[in-house]
Specification:
Blueprint: H1 17-30, H2 43-50, H3 54-66, E1 70-73, E2 77-80, E3 104-105, H4 118-131, H5 134-137, H6 146-160, E4 169-172, H7 175-185, E5 193-198, H8 202-210, E6 214-221, E7 224-225, H9 227-233, E8 237-240, H10 254-267, E9 270-274, E10 299-304, E11 316-319, H11 322-335, H12 341-352, H13 355-381, E12 386-388, E13 395-399, H14 406-415, E14 418-419, E15 421-422, E16 436-440, H15 446-462
Parallel strand pairs: 3-14, 5-6, 5-8, 8-9, 9-10
Antiparallel strand pairs: 1-2, 4-11, 6-7, 10-11, 12-13, 13-16, 15-16
Helix pairs in contact: 1-3, 2-3, 4-12, 6-12, 7-11, 13-15
Length: about 475
């Protein structure tokens, strides 16, 4: 095996050997084959491969270093210079484009890196590695490692009331992967259109469309998704966030839950329950259980570790009815050979030993304090603004006074180094939404969160009188 397969020399060429090596390396760097930071073989190894004198390679490397194509690092050999190309920007389901540098970032997102339970995760991973055998190191089952499916069935039943069994769970690489699989499985069940909540994640709507399905927006009100409007749409599948609707924070009412289940059974349809932040109920009253428990034959329950641990783990799960699971396994058998198993086994250890429970208890206490502080700050600095929806998840929906110029407030906030998103960014229907802000409160310390809201209040107070809206009672 050669050390640098794309570099060849010819003694029949009129070009000197040193120049041939230089030209070949430059070409591979320019075309992106040799990436910034790539370690090149030593001059001795490359000289042996090319059957040339070592001095020829040394001279070629020296000239490439002088021209800035390569860099010699003490103790690390010769590498392609790191400055030659910026890191590629990889699009994702949550991609928001270029983000300006600001002092206070109030956007919603995944878990906070500083809160990741490093010690517990390392311990779980070590326990998992100590117990792996030949079977665990082979290709994993398409639906996931059995130990994790067993632990998930226990955990989801205990904390979310999900009615499932290990054999009805599929482990996926985060919700985006699970949704992509569902978008390929549903047409095999005769379904080509999915209803989506409005307002909701517009990027998610596009994701479904790019996967080959059509989408139909269905309005959301104070009780959650409008099931009557859903029924009028004529679709047989809907994607909902019943625990803590994104972005309004509304919890699907008991009446709407019953109507949604009746709709699914009456249309031979399916509900995809995205329980994206179901671990974070921050109110003092009992939390709502998963919609899936009401109709496990009609609801696909989707969960993820992105909020509880970290999006980087790319770990999620689907608890699906047998008909849907069979279609999912067919799709998966055609596409891939399952998800990485060692992370699954480590997460199973985290569940089995109760470490995840303890971690989430700490996070809930921390986030409850931040949400309460946010609510007090909003009442003080943004008069007439209502913190709407349930106290849950990692974001709050702030309904601004009627007639407030939402776009003007968001733009003014950015000029004062506060990055926040307006509620209108999440709507797709033609109707004009009420002015609102969608505030993520998990990523900032409480003091910084208060400073950000105070700055928002200053921006709001400077708006022209007619653009500040009319105060309303909470």
């Amino acid at each position: 095996m050669v050390w640098l397969a794309s570099v060849e020399v010819s003694r029949d060429s009129s070009q000197p050997l040193t120049s041939q090596i230089q030209t070949a390396v430059k070409r591979e760097i320019t075309e992106g084959v040799l990436r910034p930071g790539t370690r090149l073989p030593s001059s001795r190894a490359l000289a042996d491969d090319l059957s040339v004198s070592r001095s020829v390679v040394v001279e070629a490397y020296g000239q490439l270093i002088a021209e800035g194509y390569l860099e010699a690092v003490q103790g690390s050999g010769t590498r392609v210079a790191g400055h030659l190309a910026p890191a590629a920007r990889v699009p994702t389901l949550l991609d928001e484009g270029r983000v300006p540098a600001v002092r206070w970032d109030l956007r919603t997102g995944g878990a906070v890196p500083a809160h990741f339970p490093h010690r517990e995760w390392v311990g779980a991973y070590q326990r998992a590695l100590r117990n792996v055998g030949r079977a665990e190191l082979d290709y994993p089952p398409l639906s996931g490692a059995r130990p994790l499916c067993e632990e998930l069935a226990r955990y989801l039943g205990r904390v979310r009331g999900v009615r499932t069994a290990p054999e009805r769970i599929m482990v996926v690489q985060g919700f985006a992967h699970g949704l992509a699989l569902l978008c390929s499985a549903l047409p095999r069940l005769g379904i080509g259109t999915v209803a989506v909540e409005d307002p909701g994640l517009v990027r998610q709507h596009r994701f479904v469309q790019e996967a080959g399905l059509s989408t139909v927006p269905v309005p959301v009100d104070a009780e959650g998704v409008d099931v009557a409007a859903l029924a009028r749409s004529g679709v047989r599948a809907v994607l909902v966030t019943p625990f803590h609707q994104f972005p309004t924070g509304v919890t699907l009412s008991a009446r709407r839950r019953a109507e949604l289940v009746d709709w699914a059974r009456g249309t031979d349809g399916y509900v995809i329950e995205d329980d994206y932040d179901g671990d974070f109920w921050l109110e003092r009253r009992p939390h709502p259980l998963a919609l899936q428990r009401m109709a496990p034959d009609r609801v696909v329950y989707a969960g993820t570790t992105s909020k509880a641990l970290a999006p980087a783990l790319r770990l999620g799960w689907l608890a699906a009815p047998p008909t849907v699971l069979a279609a999912l396994e067919q799709v998966r058998g055609e596409r891939d050979l399952g998800s990485e198993a060692l992370t699954q086994l480590a997460f199973a250890e985290l569940l089995r030993g109760g470490a995840l429970d303890r971690h989430l208890r700490r996070l809930r206490a921390r986030y409850r304090g931040r949400r309460e502080a946010l609510t007090l700050a909003v009442h003080r600095h943004l008069p007439g603004t209502v913190v709407a929806g349930a106290a849950a998840g990692l974001h709050a929906y702030l309904r601004l006074p009627p007639h407030t110029d939402e776009a003007l407030l968001v733009a003014g906030a950015l000029r004062h180094s506060v990055l926040v998103r307006g509620g209108s960014e999440f709507g797709t229907l033609a109707r004009r939404p009420d002015p609102a802000l969608v505030v993520g409160y998990a990523g900032l310390p409480t003091t910084a969160l208060l400073d950000a809201v105070r700055e928002l209040g200053r921006v709001w107070a400077r708006l022209p009188r007619g653009e500040r809206g009319v105060a309303r009672s909470a």
